[in-house]
Amino acid sequence: MNILITLLLFLLPVLLLLSWRRRGSSRKLPPGSLGIPIIGQSIGMLQAMRTDKGEECLRERVRKYGPISKLTLFGKPTVFIHGPAANKFIFYGDSSIVANKQPSSIRAILGDRSLFELSGQDHRRVRESLMSFLRPESLKQYMGKIDEVIKHMESHWQGKEKVAALPLMKILTFNIICSLLFEMLEGMWSIPVNLPFTRYSRSLHASSMVQDMLKELVQEKKVKLEQHTTTPHQDLITCLLSKHDEENERVVTDKEILHNIMLVMIAGHDTSSILITFMLRLLYKNPAVYKAVLQEQEEIAKSKTSEEPSTWEDLARMKYTWRVAMETLRMVPPVFGGFRLALRDIDYCGYLIPKGWQVFWASNMTQMDEKIFPEPSKFDPARFENQKSVTPYSFIPFGGGPRVCPGNEFARIETLVAIHYLVTRYSWELCSDDHYIRDPLPIPTQGLLLWIVPKIQE
Hints:
CATH 1.10.630.10, 5-stranded mixed beta sheet, disordered N terminus
């Protein structure tokens, strides 16, 4: 007994010290609970998104804890931050403090050498190589090809009275991106537990299969380049393979090509198809906006024959249509949110973000904030007549700073050209409910069923 008392007396100061340190540390951390280790709030967040309540879930968190709080998402302790200042911190902050590291589920599926993961000189090197293909002056030469692919869309509409818009837009944008690449998505936002029959496990398998196919494609492109039977700018893969430094060494490795091709597939396929789908939905629900878009596009169509492809100059005249696209992106952002990684302890808004924790932001938290955008649920393209009137860092559909989306110009081209042909050649009505879920991208129930009527071409 005496030994036990002595041991307790010896340990008591140590226990008190540890307890004091824990209390001191917890006071620095943002409010909120980390929940069950690894799982935390992941299941609740995913369920909320799949019932179109993700934004509501986060707004409740902001009401309860304020603009910064802690939780556990996808296996890691996470700090959620909200507001224009948070967006500025995420996209324009010091890259030596916050890295663009994704949750392990995304990293395992897309690879560890994509732009989502690279930083510093590696990020600049790979990004510059991608931009050599995706910059506007390079994309001009692909206008005819994009236009031709979109015209093929008619084969999916012809002779039909009812179509599902989202699958069609996926076919359309997939065909376009296939002139560059391939497709894959499911399971990136999931708890990273690799058990049979889980979404995560299926996505890992799909990722492996896609990479195997891409390896064969890259090898074919290498042979063609060596035999001089293709040009360096034939497509994205040959462009990346052709990049060499001053010592004639390849700028982008095979692994980086594979992982960034997969990234481009996701960004170029799903996000654009969703944008065009929801533009169709919102144009139908807002007849005055549809009329203005139709007038703008018909004026362009009248200036050329039906066989002439869209040109770069045509895109410059589609100013109102692009404002409609921007307002669609504000109300229904394809990307719900994203993650960063704290590279060291960070003082943010009076709280500690510990080194190694994730930092999470959500795009619609500012885009649907009534203090920033009055009547946020009202579809009003006039909000973007003057970009300077938009509160800085409150609307970032393509990111910002050094990590602005390299494919934003490509997205603008395929969206505008697609809408041009849709509004000038067809009219449509919704014939399904108006709901959608997030999984993690927004998906209309029934794919957004439409009644379609071809217009008589003069």
